[in-house]
Specification:
Strand content: under 5%
Largest sheet: 2 strands, antiparallel
Mean pLDDT: 89
Low-confidence stretches: 1-67
Number of helices: 27
Distance between the termini: 41 Å
Number of strands: 6
Structural class: mainly alpha
Strand order of the largest sheet: 1-2
Shape: globular
Radius of gyration: 23 Å
């Protein structure tokens, strides 16, 4: 920051975990500030540039008029503040995933370069700042709700349950990136009456956060079964809810499926192993009481209905993934799909523009940088299917889907010694994944890649048969499950994919060793933003010893 810039601006703008969305008008007051300051806080301001003023007036709480907002409007503002990290959007894909997880997961091919395994500061800052903007919106919702009478709070309880489930889902993602984070005391600048000094938040331990979330989600799953919702409240909830359109059964499925994901994530930790096995067994033993996502029609996702009306679309997917060759196919994924004649191959990828033989080729990560750059320029490498994914403006914002849940169950049953159930869940996951990608292609309003040849039952059966070949020991089964999960996630669920690859240490990938930097291979966690050590120094110092690229998250017990 330049010397003539008032020091207090650093505090006002940086307290990332205390951010309150600035109103559109307030933003105008800051527009003449030096470019350096504006660039530093691009992630914070990104949320404003994507919408019209009317969007904020109807959906967000203006801090200067906080008394005029409602739980209903604040709920929508809260969900909307995170939409670009669920629906495919430019910042997430180009700024963050292009240079980090898509490469670490080998979901894409890229030209090797120095320091390629160190997450860039821009990527880290954008991901971090968005989460704390989102967290601050959640705190505002809590504050507005707390101002209501007890009767009004009870009547609107569904809003708080749904919001907390969604908040916990995305809290898990950030914990899985960094480990300990400011959480329980974070985002309370408004609640604390604008007192900055008392709003610097402590870091909560990753294990403690997981424990709190799992405890609450367990209680929520029971509460959702017993609650009665006033018809007028439910009608309003259906209007405000952009995730499940007010479908309470889908919120139950979301809650319990999220529990399965979290319990599986911590199942290898000695502190959680018994709990994970017990609670997963309880959920699966009573599907009426604890419904989960079992088919694609039940997927938890933000659906796109009108690409122009409300900003809920996948328009940013194109530039986010395609720019700077971010959509090049990796060799490992292409080779695997070709070997088994995977029906998803033609739905997820398309041959390179100059691959006249339509052979499908992926970029080898072990080639030299110059050779890779030449191969990319030749236009013969496969790319992600533009009509299915990047130019499909109706591509949904994926939260949890049937294939992911089936692969979770396949792992659980395998480890529980229930082989028949494990194999059924595994094969169901493959079928659901194939169906998912053909379904989203059917939504597309783009035909750049040409017509997609329909899948057949025969080729699906043949592929599953080839995928079952090594179904033998438990070790073999887990490898197969992990591989199918990776194929299904690809660039669509990058955060989930990276967490699962680290947890299982599967699939195994070859990477070029980067001898130009101490971080020679992909990291196991992300660093904290450098600004944490500047503006939240006292709290940051409690976790400083863990702030490196090699300290594993507690569930990653290798």
């Amino acid at each position: 920051m330049e010397n003539d810039t008032p020091q207090y601006l650093g505090k006002v703008f940086h307290i990332s975990y205390c951010i309150i969305l600035i109103s559109f008008n307030n933003f105008q007051k800051f527009k003449n500030m030096k470019n350096k300051i504006l660039a530093s806080f691009a992630a914070l301001l990104m949320v404003f540039t994507a919408c019209q003023k009317s969007d904020f007036e109807s959906s967000y709480a203006d801090p200067s008029k906080i008394s005029a907002t409602t739980v209903e409007k604040q709920f929508t503002g809260f969900l909307n503040s995170n939409k670009d990290w669920v629906l495919p959007a430019y910042t997430n894909y180009f700024v963050v995933l292009r240079i980090t997880l898509n490469r670490y997961n080998q979901a894409v091919g890229w030209a090797n370069s120095s320091r390629q395994y160190v997450p860039g500061a821009g990527a880290v800052n954008d991901r971090w700042n968005n989460f704390y903007t989102f967290l601050a919106q959640f705190r505002e919702l809590e504050k507005v709700n707390a101002s209501l009478s007890a009767d009004d709070q009870a009547a609107r309880r569904i809003y708080m349950l749904a919001a907390t489930i969604y908040f916990y889902d995305h809290s898990q993602r950030v914990v899985d990136l960094h480990g300990d984070i400011p959480w329980s005391a974070a985002g309370k600048l408004s609640t604390n009456g604008g007192d900055y000094e008392n709003s610097y938040a402590k870091y909560d331990g990753a294990e403690a956060i997981y424990t709190k979330m799992l405890d609450d989600l367990k209680a929520f799953s029971d509460e959702l079964n017993s609650m009665t919702i006033n018809a007028a409240i439910l009608s309003g909830f259906k209007t405000q809810d952009i995730i499940n359109r007010g479908d309470i059964t889908l919120w139950k499925r979301y809650c319990n499926s999220l529990r399965l994901r979290m319990l599986t994530r911590v199942s290898g930790s000695s502190a959680f192993q018994s709990r994970a096995n017990s609670e997963i067994a309880t959920i699966l033993a009573d599907p009426t009481k604890y419904p989960i996502v079992t088919k694609n029609a039940e997927n938890i996702q933000i659906n796109v209905y009108d690409i122009a009306a409300n900003g809920l679309n996948a328009n940013g997917f194109r530039t986010g993934l395609e720019d700077w060759n971010g959509n090049i196919a990796g060799k490992a994924m292409i080779d695997h799909m070709k070997k088994g004649a995977d029906p998803r191959l033609r739905a997820i990828f398309e041959p390179g523009t100059k691959d006249t033989a339509k052979t499908y080729l992926g970029l080898d990560p072990l080639l030299t940088e110059n050779t890779q750059v030449t191969a990319i320029a030749d236009g013969k490498l496969s790319i992600y299917n533009r009509s299915t994914l990047t130019r499909n403006q109706y591509f949904p914002g994926v939260v949890i889907n049937a294939a992911e849940v089936s692969f979770i169950l396949a792992e659980y049953y395998t480890k529980a010694g229930k082989d028949a159930d494990a194999k059924t869940a595994y094969e169901n996951g493959i079928k659901q994944s194939i169906e998912f990608y053909y379904n989203v292609r059917a939504l597309s309003n783009d035909n750049t890649a040409g017509a997609l040849t329909p899948r057949t039952a025969a080729e699906e059966t043949a592929y599953i048969g080839s995928a079952d070949v090594n179904w033998a020991t438990n070790t073999d089964k887990i490898k197969l499950i992990a591989t199918q999960k990776w194929l299904h996630f690809n660039v669509v669920q990058a955060y989930d994919s990276w967490a699962e690859i680290r947890r299982l240490d599967l699939p195994k990938f070859d990477f070029q060793v980067d001898n130009t930097d101490p971080q020679t291979l992909p990291p196991v966690r992300w660093l904290y933003p450098a600004s944490e050590g500047i503006y939240n120094a006292d709290n940051y110092n409690t976790v400083k010893g863990k702030d490196n690229l090699t300290t594993r998250i507690f569930w990653d017990a290798k």
